[in-house]
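User: Quick sanity check before I run a bigger batch. Here is a single chain. Can you write out its predicted 3D structure?
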Amino acid sequence: MCSSSIQTRWCVGSGDVLQGIGRSCQGGQGQKPGRPRISKQSCELIQTMAHANPLWRAPRIHGELLQLGIGISARTVSRILRTLKLPPSQTWKTFLENHMGEMVATDFFTVPTVRMRVFFVFLILEHTRRRVLGFAVTEHPTAEWTGQQMVEAFQERDVPRYLVRDRDASYGHEFRSRSLIG
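Assistant: Done. Predicted structure follows.
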């Protein structure tokens, strides 16, 4: 023990007491510090859920585990999912190759004139042969006008399943309601 009054204020106790305090801060004698390990069954369950439901990601699997009473954080689930070898999803290039025959693309480009006017050219392209199915020129493209051009382009042809376009205002509600393309 400590002898003087100044030492008594700063001296907590003997070495045995300090070792006991250190052990209680570490969480007991036999445990390692840090988070508890995830059981092998939980990891296997996460892997099974990910393989059976390829569209499920960490938040969905975490929710299902909580409903089963398994307390694992979403972050831990995402770390486990990163280690899995899942089959690759379809890329944009693969999609284009698989659906080339049922797809058309539309776009606008501008043509400035000598008299400082700007014309908008609407173009419809078929992807299989890269053939122009239709084009039209206007000074003021609207959704109604663009939709009418789509109707006229596919009067005598089968309507394709897919349409590739950008998010221009000329493809408004009227265009979507008249074009009939998925």
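Residues 38-87 form one domain.

User: Great, the batch can go ahead then.
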